[in-house]
Amino acid sequence: MDPSDPGVPGNGPEERPARLAVGVVGAGRVGTALGAALSRAGHRVVAATAVSDRSRARVEERLPGAAVATPQDVVAAADLVLLTVPDDELPELASGLVAAGVPVAGKLIMHTSGRYGSAVLDPLTRAGALPLALHPVMTFTGRPDDVNRLTGISFGVTSPEPLRPVAEALVLEMGGEPVWITEAARPLYHAALAGGANHLVTLVVESMDLLSRAGVAEPGRMLGPLLGAALDNGLRLGIDGLTGPVARGDAGTVSDHIAELAKVSPESRRAYIALARLTADRALGAGLLKPEAAERLLEALAD
């Protein structure tokens, strides 16, 4: 499906946003990728903030023609403002723009934080701005393919109900798929994403390190097919895709793992126990693990 196709829901002439002057406050990996995507959709990125040499280079590469300016000037020049700053900076930025007297009435102000909904922009909303929270569910590395990664991904969308069609149309224009998240559910939504994606990387790196200690020369090559299959099983089958000693109730094997990890990595041991307990609870609840086997496992996992 082509997100620029007028036949796509939310993309008809009456729902599709007019061509907008776009400003980016925070020319990092996310801000420049989304700015470039909006530019591809026909909007015009007119200004961006950039403090470091790296961010200035990013603006020049991804947002050609955009002026480098202060946050106040970026907001003043734009119809749609992207506030793509770290989560902890967002509340202060929103209130600071209002305190500085920057005119925001009638402007679309969009942030990309997963943690917050649109309420974090309340100071701007009270000043007449139109608040949007559009969180792209993707990791951004700063590489040239960041913009292409937007195609087909989900965006967590939160906004006042009257602005929902505009928010969803912007997501479609950037190549994504809007998924509505209520304001109250935003923290849980973000915790789920961070727990899955960030902790996955930690687990993979930890597994690679332990394999290296076991003498495996190319741990990534060994893990790739296994982890790819496990991820596919989990996404397709849920808990029914679980395999391994916990699912089988092999308490002896689990005990051996814990004893060995205690010798080489106490941190890994603690993480293994915590995740094995969660796995056992899930497997027991799904009927994959019999109660007597679960009892033996919990004895082995007693810390």
Structure description:
This protein has 303 residues and is of the alpha/beta class. It is 49% helix and 12% strand. It contains twelve helices and eight strands. Strands 3-2-1-4-5-6-7-8 form an eight-stranded mixed sheet, sandwiched between helices. α10 (251-264) runs antiparallel to α11. The relative contact order is 0.08. The model is unreliable at 1-14 (pLDDT under 50).
What is the oligomer described by this structure?
single chain
Query: What percent of residues adopt helix (DSSP H or I)?
Result: 40-55%
Please summarize the sheet with the most strands.
Answer: 8 strands, mixed
Radius of gyration: 24 Å
End-to-end distance: 52 Å
Strand order of the largest sheet: 3-2-1-4-5-6-7-8
Structure class: alpha/beta
Question: What is the number of E strands?
Answer: 8
- β-strand percent reads 5-15%
How would you state the average pLDDT, rounded? Answer: 93
- In N-to-C order, the SSE pattern is EHEHEHEHEHEEHEHHHHHH
Shape: elongated
Number of distinct helices: 12
Uncertain runs: 1-14
